[in-house]
Write a structure and sequence with these properties.
Rossmann fold, alpha/beta, 43% helix, 261 residues
Length: 261
């Protein structure tokens, strides 16, 4: 599977950015602009999103395609659905990760018995039905839910909508992404992920509850947790500068063999 990857920056450690459901690598461009003088940023279009063809389906096929295109160890940054891809890469290819950054991601996204966090199964099913009935409205409403409650919601909504309208994803890819959100469960694998990890939660996130993310960080051997106050599901947009600063510090520490506090 051939993925489209936009690389920004020509020197320093490598950072791989994995976007969320329904969007594309373009969502990271502003953040990468702050980091490009110190890092090589690789902005990945997941299968069927942005400029990448749909290709094979399933979590393992998606993460295999990403790792195949990155020819050196790197820090993987995954947001929401992209965080599940990053978690899968950390478990499947630990030698390829210098560090792991999980943004608004849960090890299990479906709320069920034994898991008090995440989305209701009915919400995922309603989104799937809506894709067939009213593709554009369903996708727009889902993306709007990601920034509710943020002080910079208007700017975040513009970023999300611009990305969506300029590069709409394939409907099949959206459905396969929902499959991953519905099926993936990394709870039992967290204790085996030894890479340095930074878990970043928005305090107002309605999709990936910060308490659930804190518990996830506690289950990982080398993880630190950062709750971004007044942020919702997209803290790298609403709080771009502090996010970039914290990420840069973490990446430097991973490369140097330590871990920033």
């Amino acid at each position: 599977m051939s993925l489209h990857i936009q690389s920004v920056g020509t020197q320093g450690p490598d950072i791989v950015f994995l976007h969320g459901w329904g969007l594309s690598a373009r969502i990271w461009e502003s953040l990468a602009g702050r980091l490009k003088n110190r890092f090589r940023c690789h902005l990945v279009d997941l299968p069927g999103h942005g400029e990448s063809p749909a290709g094979a389906t399933g979590l393992n096929n998606w993460l295999d395609a990403v790792v195949e295109r990155i020819d050196r160890p790197a820090v993987f940054v995954g947001w929401s659905l992209g965080g599940l891809i990053a978690l899968g890469a950390a478990r499947r290819y630990p030698e390829r990760l210098q560090g792991l950054v999980l943004v608004a991601t849960l090890a299990r996204f479906i709320r069920e018995r034994g898991n008090d966090y995440g989305m209701k199964q009915s919400a995922i099913e309603a989104t799937r039905r809506g894709l067939s009935e009213d593709f554009s409205t369903t996708l727009s409403e889902f993306l709007m839910q990601q920034v509710l409650g943020e002080p910079g919601a208007a700017r975040a909504v513009r970023s999300l909508r611009n990305d969506l309208m300029d590069q709409p994803p394939a409907q099949e890819a959206l459905e396969r992404g929902l499959d991953i959100l519905f099926e993936a469960d990394f709870r039992d694998a967290l204790g085996d992920i030894e890479a340095p990890a930074l878990v970043i939660a928005g305090a107002r996130d309605r999709m990936a509850h910060p308490d659930g993310m804190a518990a996830m960080a506690d289950a990982m051997p080398n993880a630190q947790f950062w709750r971004v106050e007044r942020a919702a599901h997209a803290p790298f947009i609403s709080h771009e500068k502090p996010f970039a600063d914290r990420l840069a510090t973490f990446v430097d520490a991973c490369v140097q063999g330590g871990q920033a506090g």
